[in-house]
Amino acid sequence: MGTTILVILSLVATTTVGQTPKPATLSSPGKVLMYPMTLGQNSHIVNFVRLAKILRSRGYDVHLLFGTDAGSWNELDQTFNVVHRYPSANASDIESLNWSIMSAYQFVTWLADKLERQCEALLSHPDLLVDIQRERYDLLIADFIDNCGRIVSDYLDIPTIIYSAPGFIGDAALFPILPTFIPVSPMSTLESGNMTFAERVENVIEYIATVVLWYPRWFGAFQSLREKYQMNSSLNIRKSFLRTLVLVRGDFVLDYPRPVMPNVVTIEGVFSEDPKPLPHDIATFVDGAGSDGIIVVCFGTMIGQLDKRRSEMYARVLAKFPHRVVWRVTGKRPASLGNNTLAVDWLPQNDLLRHASTRLFVSHCGLSSTMEAAHNAIPVVAMPICTDGFQNALKLTRAGMAFSLDFKTLTEDSLESAIWEVLNDPRYKRNASRVAALLNDTLVPPRDKFLYYVGYVIRHGGVPHWQADVLQTMNIWQLLSFDIAALVLIVIITTLFVAGGILCLGVIAILKYCSEQKPAFKEHAQ
């Protein structure tokens, strides 16, 4: 019997020697619902489609929830196993916005109104939400910008990941905003760390106005919808995302230094992929550019058409260059379009920026455009138009790879001069190459990082252990120790007041004493 056991053990040892242990699986496939902001065919949906493709490549069952005003994309139906569509509230009239005169406040007010209407369109169809709940999803990936995701997350009561496509922007409860050195508004032209005293005063005032005046509007409307449709109405909308994992598309190579909470993870570079062949018409046009190369012009997914005056101005300026130009223009083509310019309704932006012939990118500096230019070492003529474009343009300019222009005061001469400046000065390309080298030098491939955290949240049922309780119990004044500073100031003032009072009483007593002694002195002198 003993001999038999020894023989068996020796056979087992023989068969296992030399075998390499199987690596541990980083993530387990699960059932994922993705809920992007729906305002027409916008860049947020494009981002979510890209993330969905990454998840599907690892076996995840990925479903989509979005409004019908985003249209019917074949790519959506091909990317997602199930698409839940709710009737939109006709909220995607972004083409009607006049960017040349719209202020930052007007835009965010417009955005808040549209998102509120879209949310009510979803909540007014409870049968759809009931059907979604029956699907028993393992994870919800919601859009940070759309507060309706907070309501859906609480309703489904499942682990949630928040994806912030514009980077570190918005809610101070997730990304602590320290107005002493971090610009409060994404539309601000203030630069972190380089603000003068007057600019810091301006920034603090803007922060106070945001908290006191804007946050009640931004969150209050969705809290009212939550109560109206009885969707966990006892919960506070501001605190709905505090137990979630927040994936931020950002990188501190370009982003300003700032504190982040344990549940905040950056995943910039997650969309970096091998370039795909260009569509035939664009490829033929680009290949004919010769040594001059091409200029890519695009103002993002949501801004396909500028006002007529600006469109004609751009067309006239671009026609003056020996380079070929690929320009995304929807609707009617400008009459001044040059023979060197190819106007297209859609362009494969990242593939074009990776092309060896690309010399320059003229951009509104949305985060996707900003990071694609940076990863591909393409110099930029930056013309921020809305939202985070202003801060992104500032970051590229600070890195020395962009020349910024004011979209509202832009002239034909300034546009032409800026393009020639960036094309002819080698410093822009050199700095762009330096930034690209830093961004692309990562310890872990961003895709693997994204997949790991998706699996982590599913495996552990969320990340409540990373919750930053301090953000629920302390306000910004307490975080900055202003209350302690006020106490110290009060103690100092009180001490000085008491000491001053004692000193005054002492002086009065001495003067009184001296005045009482003077007559006796005079009498003695006589």
**Tally of structural domains:** 2
* Alpha-carbon distance between the two ends: 135 Å
Mean pLDDT: 85
Structural class: alpha/beta
Query: What is the name of the CATH architecture of the largest domain?
Result: 3-Layer(aba) Sandwich
Total number of helical segments? Answer: 18
Please identify the top-level CATH class of the largest domain: Alpha Beta
**Structural shape:** globular
Radius of gyration: 30 Å
Looking at this structure, what is the CATH superfamily of the largest domain? Answer: Glycogen Phosphorylase B
The major pleated sheet works out as: 7 strands, parallel
Low-confidence stretches: 1-28
Counting DSSP E segments of at least 2 residues, the number of strands comes to 13
Q: Strand order across the biggest sheet?
A: 3-2-1-4-5-6-7
Question: How large a portion of the residues is in β-strands, by DSSP E?
Answer: 5-15%
> Roughly what percent helix?
40-55%
Explain what this protein looks like in three dimensions.
The protein has two domains: 31-271 and 446-473, Glycogen Phosphorylase B (Rossmann fold), CATH 3.40.50; 280-439, 3-Layer(aba) Sandwich (Rossmann fold). The model is unreliable at 1-28 (pLDDT under 50). It is built from 18 helices and 13 strands. α6 (148-156) links the parallel β4 and β5 (160-164). It is α/β, with parallel strands linked by helices and 526 residues long. A seven-stranded parallel beta sheet has the order 3-2-1-4-5-6-7, sandwiched between helices. It has a six-stranded parallel beta sheet with strand order 10-9-8-11-12-13, sandwiched between helices. The protein is globular. α4 (104-123) packs parallel to α7.
